[in-house]
Amino acid sequence: MSALELANKIREKFGEVISEPIEFRGEITIDLSDPAKIEKVCQFAKSKLGFDMLLDATSLDNYGDDPRWTLVYELYGTVHASHLRIKTSVGEEAGELPSISGVWATADWHEREIFDMMGIRFKGHPDLRRILMWDGYPHHPLRKDFPLAGKATDVPEVAFTDRAPLEGGPFVTSAGGSDSIAREPRVRDPEADR
Amino acid sequence: MDSREIGYNSKIEGNVVVTKVDAAIDWCRKQSLWPMPMGLACCAIELMAAGASKFDIARFGAEVMRFSPRQSDVMIVAGTVTYKMALAVRRVYDQMPAPKWVIAMGACASTGGMYRSYAVLQGVDNIIPVDVYVAGCPPRPEALLDALIKLQGKVQNEPSLSQGAAA
User: Fold this and answer.
1) Quick one: average pLDDT of A167-184?
2) Residue of B nearest to A147 (CA)
3) A170 neighbourhood in chain B, CB within 8 Å
4) Which CATH class is domain B35-59+70-156?
5) Residues A165, B116: C-beta atoms closer than 8 Å
6) What secondary structure, in 3-state letters, does chain A show?
7) Fewer C-beta neighbours within 10 Å, C or N terminus of chain A?
8) B88-140 per-position pLDDT tens digit
9) Domain count, chain A
10) What own/partner pairs with CB < 8 Å and gap ≥ 24 does B52-58 have?
11) Residue of A nearest to B116 (CA)
12) Which of B86, B87, B122 sits opposite A164 (nearest CB)?
């Protein structure tokens, strides 16, 4: 069964909350308008449609737009070898959606990473701790409004973080430059290149 | 033995070296620096190469990689020190018995290297005293061996018993 047919089966089951499947370069994406249903959709995709594997769960920061967060789930079925992408959006105020770690155990650490880097919370997650930064770190570094150099933070006796010296950077590589001098990493104003 | 015998007793002549206790102890220390391999990133691969047969760090008496800080003399910080790891590095260093030394191996351990980032400590010398810095990303095993020889030179000239000895 193709990914498109499988996506339409999800649509039949859940109706209007699932968007028309979007095909781009042979990959099928569906959009779920109600993030509260993500666990049920995933459970259905796993148990009834054979998506036995979660390849990745990740998130986007649409800074300045509403809803701010987009979550992306990459599903794969080893039986039918089909790939399906499910996207759903969460507003900044809610900032929370159901965990799918009960569906695929691998989602546990993916969701911890999303929580650590973006600050999106997962209802029903068994152990929602930071995974990359130290416990007690107050920021979420992959948010668009977080400075590249980081912020100085100190929790005495536990851990600390300093601003990184950027020395005029960031140093940006220009792809497609005529020679290696033009391509090598330099201090560049990203706005001026446009 | 009477110290006057040393000079002209034909039975022991030639088997006696007169030196200072400091120098003798330092000589022993520098020839048996047991490393604590704090391998945190790709530099640790070069550290392993330095320990393997081709480069053979045993030639300089430092082949005894101790994974317990209590048995080691020199911590080789080989790799990127993240803030999450930083206090663990500090804790392992604190558990090493004095006298102890530190080699910061590679750009990351020395200065943070290419990671100008919210997650990476900008040089392990922010939390522990470093004796030798090794440039390179990663440094070749020869560079590490050179650092070890430099450290041996430093150990040789340190007071070990007399005033100023490390606590």
Assistant:
1) 79
2) B118
3) 116
4) alpha beta
5) yes
6) CCHHHHHHHHHHHHHHHECCCEEECCEEEEEECCHHHHHHHHHHHHHCCCCCEEEEEEEEECCCCCCCEEEEEEEEECCCCEEEEEEEEECCCCCEEECCCCCCCCHHHHHHHHHHHHCCEEECCCCCCCCCCCCCCCCCCCCCCCCCCCCCEEECCCEEECCCCCCCCCEECCCCCCCHHHHCCEECCCCCCC
7) C
8) 999 999 999 988 999 999 999 999 888 888 889 999 999 999 999 999 999 99
9) 1
10) B54/B141, B55/B141, B55/B142, B55/B145, B57/B141, B57/B144, B57/B145, B57/B148
11) A164
12) B122
Task: Report how far apart, in Å, the C-alpha atoms of B25 and of each of A109, B75, B155, B165 are.
Answer: 51, 20, 10, 12
- pLDDT grade, residue B22 (50/70/90)? confident
Helix (H, G, I), strand (E, B) or coil at B87: helix
Nearest to B116 among A139, A159, A169 (CB): A169
Q: Examine residue A192 and state whether it is found in any structural domain, yes or no.
A: no
Calculated CA dihedral for residues A140, A145, A148, A153, nearest 10 degrees: -50
Where does residue A119 fall: left (phi above 0), alpha (psi -120 to 50 degrees), or beta otherwise? left
CATH number, domain of A40, equals 3.30.460.80
Assess if residue A159 is contained within a domain. no
Nearest to A73, CA basis, from A94, A48, A15, A44? A44
Q: How far apart are CA A152 and CA A99, in angstroms?
A: 31
ipTM, two decimals: 0.74
